[in-house]
Amino acid sequence: MTLTLDAPRIVTTHPLLQVHHVSKSYGSVTALRDVSAIAYPGEVLGIVGESGSGKSTLLRMMNLGETPDTGSYTLDLPDVEGNLFDLDRFARRMLCATRIGIVYQNPHLGLLMKHSSSGNVAERLLVAGERSFATLRAKATAALEASEFPLDRLDAPPIELSGGMQQRVQLAKAIALEPALLLLDEPTTGLDVSVQALVLDTLKRLQQERRITMVIVSHDLGVIRTLADRVMVMRGGAVVEAGLVDQIFQDPQHAYTQQLVHAKL
Amino acid sequence: MTPVLDIEGLSKGFTLHHLGNRIEAFDDISFTVGAGEFVLLKGANGAGKSTLLRTLYRSYLPRAGVIRFHSDHGPIDLARAADIDVAHLRRTEIGFVTQFLQARPRVSAEAIVAEPLRLHGVAVEEALAQAREALKTFGVKPDLWKAYPTTFSGGEQQKVNLARALILPQKLLLLDEPTASLDAHARAALVARLAELKAAGTAMIGVFHHPGDVEQLIDRVVDLTPDFIKSEDRTDVDL
Amino acid sequence: MTLQTLTKPWEPMSYGFLDGSAKREIRRKMIKAIAVPGCQMPYASREVPMARGWGTGGLQVSLTLVNPAMRVKVIDQGADDSVNAASIRRFIARVAGTPTTMDTLEADLIQSRHRIPEEVLREDQVLVLQVPNPEPLRPVQPNMSIARQMHADADYGRMWLQLYEQIVRSGRVMQGASYPSLVHGRHVMTPSPIPRWDVPKLHMAKHLTILSAGREKRIFAVPPFTRVEPLVFSDVPYKVEDHAGLTCHRSGTRGFFMNEIPQDDGSSVFEVSDSEWGVKAIRRRDGEEVALGETWYKNGKMPS
User: Fold this and answer.
1) Mean pLDDT of C225-235
2) Cβ distance of C158 and A123 shorter than 8 Å
3) What is the domain partition of chain C in residue ranges?
4) pTM of the shown model
5) CATH code for the part of the protein at C20-230
6) Per the CB < 8 Å rule, is A9 touching B76?
7) Residues of B with CB below 8 A from A6's CB?
8) Smallest Cβ distance to C168: which of A112, A123, A155?
9) Residue ranges of chain B whose CB lies within 8 Å of a chain A CB
10) Cα distance from C114 to chain A (closest Cα, Å)?
């Protein structure tokens, strides 16, 4: 992009999430090259790109599941300080368990498939120290309800549920502790189109009701357009272009983004 | 008159990488809009009227020039403002009205209309009450208020869209052919609502296929037709 | 000085069967286990003339701890007279020359499978429990490397999840024996397959308990006066087996953990599980002068 924008002047709140100059190589393969990203409180940041663009690696880093070779990551939250990549395993686990929610494309990564659905949600609360059965039950039910999960299947194990329902259990688990940050890794990929629309709709409603800061990664432009306020386009481990969602879709600047957008429309 | 928008030397073109060419939309546009002023954009098809509106809204990135918007937080150049500032202004001070509704499944008409108020911090019940009032004004029947607009006809969707777009008084309103294919009653309601907002100080820039619809509102006309096009070749509508 | 004066004459076997270095290792691991209550310490686990899974872990600890003055008691599910208990007791006596007893009050060292005696143990007594599966996290985390990380992080949420699942599916906590318990507020351990009835006996007990798994090669310990708290929800209290109202049909003793003995007519009678307690009760009933120790449970209730 030839045009460089000014620093924010009206919005003076700090971004909730700041990733700066992150690079990561696996041997001779460069997964991320000097990537930076920010998300303001209540904002939905979309990251779009094809497989191998580095978008999922970046999301894993935001969930502290991976550490880059260089770069920093901060979350503007009370009691959370410094470069989060420097935290030890214990601090990372507590931070992820209590402040960050994640929904994976593959429900096996996020759920205990043979435990009850409500138990999957309750596990989050247990990690945070909740020890009252009644409270666990009530909070798990509330989170599942907010995710528009049918409550008559409260104790059905995810393995017996449809793909869309499994994603709702993941979502309920992710929001059960009212996280400051919700990470979504291709949350609707692989679902039937009609189911996909309903899950996206739930995400949109939750975002509007709770103003959760979200980072959503998808190769599906439709998903990004539906949910995101701002978009980052990635390719080959680097950010190609970033901007407001309507600007990226209506007036893409970079050749790669144009190709991506025009292929879709 | 209090200035709301100063546009200086604004240019926009599109670089199409796969074709290896550039399309010029408009070049070196300058004009000013004050509070409560209604500016009509005029010009031949392809002169860049809609493009200009979208550039002002920052859906398009300008190639050159300054869009100085006098926001509640002081003047800011929309051509270069940070994305987050633009997003904030869109929520609070700048509206964009088209004829198309972005309906979402399982969101009722009244909820969709109330949404801008909700985002602005108005309580649910109060927002819904105002939304119903707006739907009534635009002639949407009460039995549709709780229904999902995804199932509505184009005309009804358009009314819901207008009710939503105009429910929150804003400093600057960009109007992209909102009257197209609107029935007479709704058109009258739209003009009345625009007049109300205008009287309250909203600055407006509009593109209308039939400018006659809003004739009594127009304060000024800005012609985007490049100077090299001869007036006898012009195909745009007369005023 | 000759080599002869510096070395001991040849013996067919070391004292207490295990060689000196094996005992030294187990001693060191026991000290570590006592230093970090409830934390599992790995040890080599030697061969003993008994199959793995039959109490080899407990036996190695007992053989390490005994000296000729120590009186040894061995019980299996509460009974001193089962084949297994009798064999282990005789083996220890043979290789270490120790006197043996069945009376809990007389014993210095008690090796046990699946029970803690009903009479309160003293500061000078040591309880050795045989453990088949030392890892309480195994049902929730089959990967033992991750399980060890979870212990290190005190990441025990999944243990409660297990209880949650039981309540959701069955309406109550189904965990019977091996009820997972938090030791000294830090490590969750399995107290070996003792019934729920026995877990409160470990809490702030005066005696030392060593738990040893021979096949799994782990030793852990509950030092004297250490908190042992069964994992529970704050609003679902811990319940022991409903044995408080049962009476032993042979000894007439009441308010202790019972074995259920099914009868031909479909009913069942009960017999006190701690066999020597039952024997002493019968002898006293028959007019003998028998010392009965103080019991943990009084009138079927554990005083809090």
Assistant:
1) 96
2) yes
3) 20-230, 241-304
4) 0.88
5) 3.40.50.11310
6) yes
7) 77, 80-82, 85
8) A155
9) 14-18, 54, 58-61, 71, 73-74, 76-77, 80-89, 104-107, 115, 118-119
10) 29
Q: Which residue has the higher pLDDT, A196 or B78?
A: B78
> Does pLDDT of A2 surpass 90?
no
Chain A residues touching C235 at Cβ < 8 A? 132-135
CB contact under 8 A, A155 and C169: yes
pLDDT score at C76: 96
Which residue of B15, B84, B112 to mutate against A (max A Cβ within 10 Å)?
A: B84
Check whether C34 has a pLDDT greater than 90: yes
Tell me the C-alpha distance between B130 and B224, whole Å. Answer: 37
Q: Is A112 on the interface with B (CB under 8 A)?
A: no
CA B8 to chain centre: 20
Kindly write down the DSSP assignment for every residue of C264-291, as one continuous string: TTS-EEEEESSHHHHHHHHHHHTT---P
The pLDDT value given to residue B182: 84
Window 196-225 of A: residues touching B by CB (8 A cutoff) are 197-198, 201, 204-205, 208
Q: How far is it, in rounded angstroms, from Cα C46 to Cα C26? A: 10
Helix B124-137, helix B184-199: angle, nearest 10: 130
Mutate to test the interface with A, among B17, B60, B118, B171 (most CBs of A within 10 A): B17
Map out the domains of chain B with their CATH numbers.
36-61+93-233 (3.40.50.300)
User: Is the confidence at residue B216, as pLDDT, over 80?
Assistant: yes
For residue range A202-245, what is the model confidence (pLDDT) as tens digits? 898 888 888 899 999 998 898 999 899 999 999 999 999 999 99
Most confident of B96-105, B110-119, C20-29: C20-29
Are B81 and A205 within 8 A, CB to CB? no
Side-by-side strand order, sheet with B3-16:
B21-34, B3-16, B64-71, B74-77
When pLDDT is cut at 50, 70 and 90, the band that residue A193 belongs to is confident
**Reported ipTM:** 0.88
Among the listed residues B83, B171, B23, the one whose alpha carbon sits nearest the alpha carbon of residue A247? B83
A84-88, B45-49, C81-85: the lowest-pLDDT one = B45-49
Q: Tell the burial category of B227 from Cβ atoms under 10 Å away from its Cβ (0-12, 13-18, 19+).
A: exposed
Mean pLDDT of C187-206: 96
Residues of chain C whose beta carbon is less than 8 angstroms from a beta carbon of chain A are 149, 153, 155, 157-158, 160-161, 164-165, 167-169, 233-236
All domains in chain A, ordered by first residue? 17-264 (3.40.50.300)
Question: Which residue in chain A has the smallest CA separation from B102?
Answer: A226
Phi/psi at A2 (nearest 5 deg)? -80, -30
State the alpha helices, DSSP H only, in chain C. 3-6, 20-35, 56-65, 83-96, 144-152, 157-170, 199-202, 275-285
Residues C164, A90: C-beta atoms closer than 8 Å? no
Indicate the range of A29-43, A78-92, A189-203 predicted with least confidence.
A189-203
The DSSP H or E segment spanning B85 is helix B83-92
How confident is the model at residue B229, as a pLDDT? 56
